[in-house]
Design goal:
The complex is a heterodimer of chains A (about 110) and B (about 120).
Chain A lengths: L2 E5 L2 E5 L4 E8 L3 E9 L6 E6 L5 E4 L2 E5 L3 E6 L8 E9 L6 E3 L3 E6 L1
Parallel strand pairs in A: 2-11
Antiparallel strand pairs in A: 1-3, 3-8, 4-5, 4-9, 6-7, 7-8, 9-10, 9-11
Chain B lengths: L3 E4 L2 E4 L5 E7 L5 E8 L3 E10 L2 E4 L6 E7 L2 E6 L8 E8 L4 H4 L2 E2 L3 E5 L1
Parallel strand pairs in B: 2-11
Antiparallel strand pairs in B: 1-3, 3-8, 4-5, 4-9, 5-6, 7-8, 9-10, 9-11
Classes of the chains: A mainly beta (about 110), B mainly beta (about 120).
Chain lengths: ~110, ~120
Amino acid sequence: EDQVTQSPEALRLQEGESSSLNCSYTVSGLRGLFWYRQDPGKGPEFLFTLYSAGEEKEKERLKATLTKKESFLHITAPKPEDSATYLCAVHSGGSNYKLTFGKGTLLTVNP
Amino acid sequence: DADVTQTPRNRITKTGKRIMLECSQTKGHDRMYWYRQDPGLGLRLIYYSFDVKDINKGEISDGYSVSRQAQAKFSLSLESAIPNQTALYFCATSDSGTGSLHGYTFGSGTRLTVV
């Protein structure tokens, strides 16, 4: 059974204070690892897909990296508008192509 | 207009009532999903459909049923609502050809309260 664990559950940063969110996973045959952003009361919004260890993707202040066991979402010089819950999900061949989600990390960036 | 539309956005219903949540999409995707989200538990899969004639149970299907009326429409029913079905419900879609590139597209959710 695929498993996804995100840490920390919550993270509070000051504006400009860089940090990283972690996503550890156990899957049978990773086909893709996804990062989503979710604002309160809204549906998750796609950010990145990573396919293989060593891959990196960037978007504005966010950078996602992937190893064989975990992924990191690095946030550089965050702004208050980066405050949201960040979800990690895996897509494996063993799960009949369904996504398995972690519980998310609630990020709060204070001005 | 949103790519994935869920109705209603909010609903309060009484225990024992039947309720239907609806989802329609304009993405042209063949796969559709229903998830519920609870604080501390994350997103959990209720049902999924890979095409109109294919319906599958997810990890928490008890107490729920679904209908795929067309490629673009996928509804979720609670036959007899109970308070622990109070949650935020999301519909999502993906494309079997490119799904691994972009994952899912989510609707804005339905907040259901069972009293």
